[in-house]
Amino acid sequence: MQYVVKKMAKIHCAKGPKGCKKCQEYVKEIRYALLDTNPQENELAARPMIELEIASGEKIWVTFDIIAYFDTLDAVKEYAVKKGIEIEQIIEE
Question: How far is the C-alpha of 20 from the C-alpha of 65, rounded, in Å?
């Protein structure tokens, strides 16, 4: 799996909304995020993680990079087509 769309708030820092005022502001605006769940390895990068369900039904945790945020799912799909990106999963929680 590589590209996933998830409805979520922007990520600012590791403290999250409980410890960061900017994160508190971001939590108020939920948008669609295009995620690369197979980012290039970098030992020094601290990345967020997401739990995904794979084809076998097993749940796994993977790191991700955010490609971009969008207001609508149609905008994500349009961007993916333009960039030749195949979206593997859409999570609307």
Answer: 21
Q: Which domain holds residue 86?
A: 3-91
Residue 59 has pLDDT above 80, yes or no: yes
Q: What residues does 35 pair with on adjacent strands?
A: 4, 66
Judge contact between 49 and 11, C-beta under 8 A: no
Domain count, the chain: 1
Which 8-state DSSP code applies to residue 28? T
Q: Which residues contact 93 (CB under 8 A, 6 or more apart)?
A: 6, 7
Question: What token pair was written down for 2?
Answer: 């590589």
Whether this prediction's pTM lies above 0.90 is answered by no
* Confidence at residue 92, expressed as pLDDT on a 0 to 100 scale: 82
Q: Residue 36 region, left (φ>0) first, then alpha (ψ -120 to 50), else beta?
A: beta
